[in-house]
UniProtKB/TrEMBL annotation:
Any one Gene Ontology BP term: respiratory electron transport chain
Protein name (database record): Cytochrome b561 bacterial/Ni-hydrogenase domain-containing protein
One example GO MF annotation: heme binding
Cellular compartment(s): Cell membrane
Domain Cytochrome b561 bacterial/Ni-hydrogenase: 6-181
Pfam families assigned: Ni_hydr_CYTB (PF01292)
Main location: membrane
SUPFAM superfamilies from the UniProt entry: Transmembrane di-heme cytochromes (SSF81342)
GO cellular component: plasma membrane
Membrane-crossing segments per the record: 12-29, 41-59, 97-118, 147-165, 197-216
Superkingdom of the organism of origin: Bacteria
Length: 218
């Protein structure tokens, strides 16, 4: 079957960079000491990457846009019912459950880096916004920041299991598709074009946010 491009390079690059940065954040967050500095810098990078990807979800290519793949609860339940009965609808981009996972992960990761801007190790390293909240609020924020990684790890594990389900049971090569961006057996897919303006705007705003964070003391 002919392969058709579905996920263009900005989607694929941002996906794998998020995976690498999240892994690095988990490792450095548990090390302490001088590693904590790199924990902040990777958190800054993740925040800029998510911001750029969200913007590309508005200005980007067809299958990158949230308006294309985010579905209503009714559609999600209908898709789940189809999976259980073996008559699910095929989607060129993210299916309704995959789209829901994307949104949940983006929200969870965003809450994680946002709370990280207020969090400190109480000794050497302090988030750039640490001085803008009361002690009571800092305690609440710190609790969220130190609890959420366990939830995010569970979501990542669920995401990997879902990919394996598609690979083994549904015979959809999602892993390879996230490497080269192409899928087979599609019926009338939209011709994917990567909009230069969308990339430029997303990158400029994301990098500007990153530069602001890097200039702030920790």
């Amino acid at each position: 079957m002919k392969s058709e491009l579905v996920w263009d390079w900005p989607i694929r690059v941002s996906h794998w960079l998020m995976a690498l940065l999240f892994t690095g954040l988990i490792i450095t967050g548990n090390e302490g000491g001088d590693w904590f500095k790199y924990h902040f810098y990777m958190g800054y990078s993740l925040s800029a990457l998510i911001l750029a990807r969200v913007l590309y979800g508005i200005w980007g290519s067809h299958y990158a846009r949230f308006g294309q793949f985010v579905r209503s609860p009714k559609v999600v339940f209908s898709y789940v019912k189809g999976l259980l009965t073996g008559h699910h609808e095929h989607y060129a981009g993210h299916n309704p459950i995959g789209a829901l996972m994307v949104v949940v992960l983006f929200l969870g990761l965003s809450l994680q880096w946002l709370t990280g801007l207020f969090t400190s190790d109480q000794i050497f390293w302090f988030g750039p916004f640490n001085g803008y909240a009361s002690d009571d609020w800092l305690d609440r924020i710190s609790t969220i920041h130190h609890t959420l990684p366990n939830i995010l790890l569970a979501l990542v594990a669920l995401h990997i299991l879902a990919v394996l389900f598609h690979e083994i049971h549904l015979k959809e090569r999602l892993f390879l598709a996230m490497l080269h961006g192409k899928k087979k057996g599609l019926t009338g897919p939209v011709q994917v074009q990567t909009p230069r303006l969308g990339i430029v705007l997303s990158l400029v705003i994301g990098l500007a946010w990153l530069a602001v964070l890097w200039m702030m003391p920790i």
